[in-house]
From TrEMBL:
Residues 397-494 form the Moybdenum cofactor oxidoreductase dimerisation domain. InterPro entries: Ig_E-set, MoCF_OxRdtse_dimer, OxRdtase_Mopterin-bd_dom, OxRdtase_Mopterin-bd_sf. The chain crosses the membrane at residues 12-37, 57-81, 93-111, 117-139, 151-173. It holds the Pfam family Mo-co_dimer. It comes from Saliphagus infecundisoli. Residues 226-374 form the Oxidoreductase molybdopterin-binding domain. Signal peptide: none annotated. This is Molybdopterin-dependent oxidoreductase. Keywords: Membrane, Transmembrane, Transmembrane helix.
Length: 496
């Protein structure tokens, strides 16, 4: 058999064996507590510099994490193909070393994913290491005589046998998966009254006044959202306090101080005009009530929120005095969806989403300043959302053209910050006053619109800028997302 043919078969063998390991790792993930490939992807996220994370989110948005997982899979397949090509055959002294390396890597990943030894992890290890070993033994058995067609039939056999086995084992192992997240998204027992927007602002292309949970953006360091059992979950309030205590899930949902609040969230990685922004109607308990009950010690400076996925974030203790900072447990008329932090998350109006820890398990009152995850990557610690306004829609009825969008600004108090918007349809040469929708709440975006007459088929460069309550005009200075969030006027060329 010629050299090119040999290289092809070696590369194909490496890819199929690696794919078998990936498939086996996915099949046993219920036993381990997660998918090993996702563990690698999350390790990449944790170790990535801030500029890289921002670039990936800005470029790919919601697809950033799936793209990273796909990249990890591709890297594993490529590495396996290269290793198989360069692996010596005579004498075959490195084969045991390769097998040991795969076994050690698998054990380390499973322990990192699941957090400890158990019978389930042991079974998972045997399946994840044994399946690719058997595939390798079958594929590397010399055919007599060497034949490309027979080799391809062997690959087909491995794929077919693997698919059937994987389906059966996955169905079996899935019985061991946690079912705690089944209550995520369930209807809340209390009556909820989300605000309704002005129908005049609901023309084609405009976002809803309140974003449906399924359409609200999510950005996390976790690729696979934690699946938390609310029956065993508790929220601890401790640290520099006189009376540390814990709350169960039902105790949090039944708290006497529960309130509703319509609040806009925006990601600090959102570029000007981007989609990483949404407005939801939340239900929760003021953080001030929960912390006050623990009696913080004098000299405490920070409040650190810890999440089930290892994430932590800090806000100054004086910020906790605001009654609009919530530990939220509801979104819309339902319990938080898993992707939005079930069972509970922090909500800090007017700050970027990086401050709002999801899947909270602990609230720590700290006597020293806490350097949080994104602060370590050179993002702004305060993370106050910049004043912004975006173009979102353009529509026509006869000679009448209407353009519209949203405006929002960081809020330090409950006072309305956006007083108006100005709209240009000639690229910023002239400006006109836009119409604002009535405020849904002091922490919610304002939808805007501007109508004018123009011949059919006209093209316009629409630019918008927000006006703050004190008369300050939104800055036109363009800045990237890192470290303080993007700034600049949003402009869109529209033809109607």
């Amino acid at each position: 058999m010629n050299t090119a043919s040999t290289r092809f078969e070696r590369a194909a063998t490496g890819i199929v064996v690696a794919a078998t390991w990936i498939a086996a790792s996915f099949v046993v993930s219920p036993l381990v507590g997660g998918f090993a490939v996702v563990t690698v992807a999350e390790a990449v996220i944790v170790r990535s510099p801030g500029w890289l994370s921002s670039s990936a989110i800005g470029l790919l948005g919601f697809a950033a994490q799936p793209a990273l997982v796909a990249g990890v899979v591709a890297a594993v397949l490529a590495a396996a193909a290269i290793a198989e090509i360069v692996r010596p055959r005579a004498p075959d002294v490195l084969t045991p070393a390769y097998a040991v390396a795969v076994a050690v890597a698998t054990a380390w990943l499973f322990l990192a994913t699941g957090g400890g030894l158990s019978i389930g992890v042991a079974v998972a290890f045997v399946v994840a290491v044994g399946a690719p070993y058997l595939a390798a033994q079958y594929l590397t058995r010399p055919p007599a005589p060497p034949n490309r067609r027979r080799f391809l039939r062997r690959i087909g056999g491995v794929v077919a046998a693997g698919a059937v086995s994987a389906a059966g084992l996955r169905a079996l192992f899935s019985r061991f998966e946690s079912e705690g997240g089944d209550r995520a998204g369930e209807p809340l027992s209390r009556s909820i009254s989300p605000p309704s927007g002005d129908p005049a602002f609901d023309f084609e292309g405009m976002p809803a006044a309140v974003t449906p949970p399924r359409n609200h953006y999510t950005i996390d360091i976790s690729v696979d959202d934690p699946d938390i059992d609310p029956e065993s979950w508790s929220l601890g309030i401790d640290g520099a306090v006189e009376e540390p205590y814990e709350l169960g899930y039902e105790e949090l949902r039944g708290h006497d101080d529960s309130v509703e609040q319509t609040t806009t969230l925006i990601c600090i990685s959102n570029p000007v005009g981007g989609d990483l922004i949404g407005t939801a109607h939340w239900t929760g308990v003021p953080l001030s009530s929960l912390v006050k009950a623990a009696e913080p010690a004098e000299g405490a400076v920070d409040l650190v929120t810890h999440a089930a996925d290892g994430y932590s974030e800090a806000i100054p203790l004086e910020l906790v005095e605001r009654e609009d900072v919530l530990i939220a447990y509801g979104m819309g008329e339902q319990a938080l969806p898993r992707s939005h932090g079930f069972p509970a998350r922090l909500l800090v109006p007017g700050r970027y989403g990086m401050k709002m820890t999801k899947w909270i398990t602990r609230i720590e009152v700290a006597e020293a300043e806490h350097e949080a995850y994104w602060e370590q990557r050179d993002w702004n610690e305060r993370a106050i959302a910049n004043t912004m306004s975006y173009v979102r829609a353009a529509t026509r009825e006869g000679d009448r053209v209407t353009v519209g969008g949203v405006a929002f600004g960081g809020l330090e108090t409950g006072v309305e910050e956006i007083a108006g918007v100005e709209v240009s349809v000639d690229g910023g040469e002239t400006w006109n006053e836009g119409e604002l929708e009535a405020q849904l709440g002091p922490h919610a975006w304002r939808r805007w619109r501007y109508a004018f007459d123009a011949p059919e088929g006209s093209e316009f460069e629409v630019v918008v800028r927000a006006i703050e309550a004190d008369g300050t005009v939104q800055t036109d200075e363009e800045a990237d997302t890192l470290p303080d969030g993007a700034t600049g006027w949003h402009r869109e060329t529209v033809q109607v």
